[in-house]
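Form P-L/3: holo structure prediction, ligand magnesium ion.
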Amino acid sequence: MTLPEASETRFPSARSDPAPLFAADGVTVRFGGLTALDDVSLAARPHEVHGVIGPNGAGKTTFFNVCCGFVRPDTGTLWWRGEPLPGLRPAQLAGMGIARTLQGLGLFAGLTVAENVMVGADRFRRTGFASALFALPRAGADERRLRERADAAMREVGVEDVAARHPGSLPYPVRKRVALARALAADPELLLLDEPASGLGAGEMAELGELVRGLTARMTVILVDHHMDLVMSVCDRITVLDFGRVVAEGAPAQVRDDPAVIDAYLGEEARHG
Amino acid sequence: MRAVLRRLVPRSLLLRNLLGVVAGLVVVVLVLETTSPFRNSQFATMSYYAIAAAGLTVLTGLNGQISLGHGALMAVGAYTTALLLQGGSVPFPLAMLAAAVVTALVGVVVGAAAARLHGPYLAGATLALAVGVPGLAIYFDGLLGGEQGLSVRSPRPPGWFADAHYFLTAGELGGAKYLAYIGWITLLVVVLLLANLMAGRYGRVWRAVRDDEVAAELAGMRLGGLRILAFVVSAACAGLAGAVLAMVVRLAAPSGFTIVLSLSLLTAVVVGGLGSIPGALLGSALLVFLPPAVTNLGTGAGLTGVQAAQLAPFVYGVVLVVVMLLAPGGVMGLLRRLWRRGINQGGST
Ligand SMILES: Nc1ncnc2c1ncn2[C@@H]1O[C@H](COP(=O)(O)OP(=O)(O)OP(=O)(O)O)[C@@H](O)[C@H]1O
Ligand SMILES: [Mg+2]
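OUTPUT (holo model):
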């Protein structure tokens, strides 16, 4: 595996340490007696891929749930473009340009692939209920606009051939791409990817890595995944969680050799026997 | 061949759906003009079942919300119509519109409660509605006429309509036929508007919310608002259906809106195929035409009148069970499967 020090030079803006697009500051989440996140801070800088790794149950998905408004943190603040984010509902955050893929697939089984992706593009609609009820021309124009956005997203991930199919009839890796296309159709500023590489073969994973790298031209990405090759080669910075706490943070090379990280993962191996 | 067909179909959704409705209107005229007054009144009955079922299939099929209370919503529409037509000064289309609006407002309240409930809780809450609302008519018997209900002045055909009818068909325009026309024209308008909604953004996001709440919310859907909207649309249809019912049976009384009505609507929608408007029409037709057909068969086979009458609900139950077992997608789902198989076997032709 090549060391990702190249990423520092590929993106010179990253070196000047710009203000983060999105940040979490001291986020703590408790579920009953369990502390799923404990004083977690993380800053995702514009046009970077920020990795979040950690063993199973470390709190990665819970962190995403906080970012998307599904879970209210007990303490801590989220920041968006240097402003504190008040506790917003998921739909409002989506409207601001935060998109996410789910750890499972979360595709709409009764919708075609194209319709699934059009739902992702829904925040760009301009007409309301009355136009749809009477099928006014502007509702039709709206639909065509959403379809164009969906087409672009499907092309980007290579699922345009299966646009008319239902997700249930497609192989798992293709469904993963559809889920990604749905998130991209929202043209997000911040994209949260929860284990996008699970279930993919080596070739597909390399393709995914390239795709994600390419996305940084338009957006900021926070990536959760268990595949270290992918994470290390794609991310500009990595935050390591263990039992809900940040145990390390830094450039991939730094993080990989951090004893605390090795501990966390060795601990996992020990836990799994 | 398919490409040629596709070129003949207009690109605009509204034109396409309007074309369908005009074709529907032609069929309606042909059928109503060639059948007996008795059949006319059966078609009038079918029209109000179908209006309500079309609204219900949007709610249950597209948005995944079950309602055992649509009979009660029809009651709201029927009583509104009865009250407004009492004085004789309100034209009936206005009364129908008012019935739709009032029922839609009730739908906002019920929908807001329903949006927070799932599965059995939603079924229970809407069941309570079905049981409770007819009781209101008895409680407010001064206004709503108690058990006897309110009799409804059915609209008489205006002169121009009777003239136009005579001009076109050279036939007599009976009261039953006029009411059947009112019912079916209302149904066609309802179907047009629902088809517009289903083919566009709302149909898509309603199904998305039904299939995966979390993913829908992540994509920016406001779950509560969309669920309430589906309920309101569905309630407005039920209100219109109630208005037509009141005019057709000339009565709005609690006995017309029992839980049986709500269940019948739900079975019609399930038998026809959830989420399909043609399915809702088919289910409603079955609801109206199957029981008398079965009764006739029964008496033909030598059963007494009472025995034959008891056969109808039994056969209806059997049809429901068979459809659920053999064709979970309803009749429309079955037709779609056969159609697809036909295409595949047809190969490249
Ligand atoms: N809604 C919830 N209620 C109670 N406990 C929860 C809830 N969500 C998560 N947890 C718990 O919080 C902890 C962190 O879970 P989380 O899903 O965030 O881990 P993760 O890092 O995403 O793990 P994985 O790699 O397996 O996906 C786990 O112990 C989990 O059981
Ligand atoms: Mg997880």
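COMMENT: Chain B has one domain: 12-258.
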